[in-house]
Amino acid sequence: MEATAAEVDAAVRAAHDARDALADRRVRAALLRRAADLLDGAGERIVEAADAETALGPGRLTGELGRTTYQLRAFADVVEEGAFLDVRIDHADPALIPPRPDLRRYKIPLGVVAVYAASNFPLAFSVPGGDTASALAAGCPVVVKAHPDHPATSELSAALLRRAAAETGLPAGVIGLVHGFEAGIELVRHPLVAAAGFTGSVRGGRALYDAAAARPHPIPFHGELGSLNPVVVTEAAADERAEEIGTGLAGSMTLGTGQFCVKPGLVLAPQGPAGDRLERSLTEAVSNTEAGVLLDHRMRDAFLDGVRERAALPDVQAPVTPGAGGEHTVSAGFLTVPAARLAEDGGTHDLLLEECFGPVTVLARYTDDAEIGAVLARLPGNLTATLQLGAAECVGEDAGADASGGGTGITAATGGTGADAAAGGTGGDASEGGTGRGARLLAALTPLAGRLLVNGWPTGVAVAPAQHHGGPYPAATSTATSVGGTAVERWLRPVVHQGTPPALLPPELREHNPLNLPRRVDGRPER
Question: Where is each Aldehyde dehydrogenase domain found (predicted)?
Fold first, then answer.
């Protein structure tokens, strides 16, 4: 099914020719809603096809389909509301020094968007997924490069999206689909492609990112690449609920056979009796987890090689050994290591600070807050970072049960500034900004991730207006989110009209607001 260069070119040109057809926001909203309806109507066929290709299971895939269609409808709501256009009008004011001309600003679609489908989400991050939905919401036609692990599911989804386009009066070219490795390279290099969205590995994403930047006219490349998703468990939290934390961690790290981009891959837990209880709880829960299937044998081989190499490092132990569960399956497990080993610059344990795709995590046992800070300072960017705190720590108090006797060793991960300063001050209580141990730890984690969790687990990314799914590199290649309503902003650029005669203004910028858009006029919100 490898697409030729000519086929990629044809798909991109068809998408480029369809740009004007997407200009009407009402049509775009209708397209997104009709696509959701058709996907729901074909749910049984879609789940069957996706399960045959991925072995993710009907339950998981049915839930993913529901998320996908909810997401399409949510973007239809975003389109209809129109706030994403960010309309701003500043009337001329000759009395100002210097005088201000009439300025009217809004956002317009970039053009054709290339979408690179993910392996682990054949729907929600693939052909009908968030990148496609948000690009169409912005008014951008899409050409998707299908993932080789689910080509039939991709074709079925694309056919339904094209049917939705036809039923809403749009050309089929608004949704293109190509297959093959070389097609992916041709796509990002095509001169009519204006932006790209990617979900996948650091290696593959970085290669495409570099290709996008090396073009004669570079384009935005919004990639989600890789994430370790660190967790810090305080001694107070472990003392209060070690068993609950161990069980919750096991469920999170093994969910979907560990194939979630937000799987917690590194957990800092205290030495001592409370940490021992947590480790025993984790051991029991992971031991009772059934073996599962990874998406393909390439990923299975990488997982087996990865855990084998990590387990062989000095001072690394495997209370539950991750590995092969059968000819096609893998068994979950976890590794332990003294946190001091991870704090060593250029040490032999740097591999433990890299994501290992599959059902495994690393439990690093720390002796004091200085070790926590030293490990955090060595971490790359992440999608998420999680804190497990004790009850008193959640209300800003320094609940005395921390291993360092006060937590003074915690520093922010941006190098040099103490977490007290990053938290907003050096004194006071939670009502004044929070300067207890919980606040210091939260400040230390903030530079590392795009989503911070307290007393929860990162697996599960809610589709909501306030969501952010991204983070510092290599979690993402930009500061944008790929989930939630603001994901549409990736595919827009601002344009300002200065002194344009009223008859020549686009409807979005006209004085009487014929489209009834939310906007700011002379600094004041109105509609």
Answer: 2-372
Query: HSE of 414 in the Cβ direction (CA atoms, 13 Å)?
Result: 13
CB atoms within 10 A of CB 452: 15
Q: What is the pTM of this model?
A: 0.92
For residues 203-213, one letter each, b for 16 or more C-beta atoms within 10 angstroms of the residue's C-beta and e for the rest, the string is eebbebbebbe
Contact 75, 134 (CB under 8 A): yes
The amino acid present at 387, given as its one-letter code, is L
Tokens of 510: 């006209």
CATH fold group of domain 230-396+436-454: Aldehyde Dehydrogenase; Chain A, domain 2 (3.40.309)
Residue ranges covered by each domain of the chain: 5-225+484-521, 230-396+436-454
Please tell me what DSSP assigns to residue 3: P
Q: What's the angle, vertex CA 477, arms to CA 256 and CA 481, rounded to 5?
A: 65
* Domain boundaries 5-225+484-521, CATH class: alpha beta
Instruction: For the chain, report the end-to-end CA distance as a whole number of angstroms.
Output: 50
Query: DSSP 3-state assignment of 128?
Result: coil
Q: Which residues contact 290 (CB under 8 A, 6 or more apart)?
A: none
The residue type of 236 is A
Cross-strand bridge partners of residue 364: 268, 337
**Which one, of 201, 193, 220, lies nearest residue 209 by Cα?**
220
Are 5-225+484-521 and 230-396+436-454 in the same CATH fold?
no
Catalytic residues: 224, 261
Q: What is the spatial distance between Cα 267 and Cα 42, in angstroms, rounded to a whole number?
A: 41
422-450 tens-digit pLDDT: 333 333 343 445 668 999 999 999 999 99
